[in-house]
Amino acid sequence: MRPTTRGDSPRCTCNSLVSTLAAVRDNLTAFELQHAGEISALPDDFARQFKEAKTGLAGLKLPAEPQGQKKIGNCKLPEGVCFLKSSLALLQKM
User: Fold this and answer.
1) How many CB atoms lie within 10 A of CB 82?
2) What residue ranges do the domains of the chain occupy?
C-alpha cells in the first residue's frame, strides 16, 4: 500500500476519521509547543521526518460532510472495531 501524500483523500470518510485526525493534529501541535527546544535540537533526519509527518497530516483532505459509514453499511469492520480509534488510543497510552 502506498503512503498517502499531500492532497490525497483518505480511503475512509467517516466521522471517526474527522474526529481522530482533529485529535492527532491538536496533540501534535501541543507536543510541538511543549517540546520546541528538543525538536529544534533533533538530528536532521529526525527533524525532517517530524516535519514530513506534520505536513502530511495537515495535507489530508477531509470530507465536507462525513457520515457514519457503519450506519449506512459501507464499513465492513465488526461493530465496535475502528482502526483509526484503536490506533489513536494506542498512541495516547504510550
Assistant:
1) 20
2) 15-93
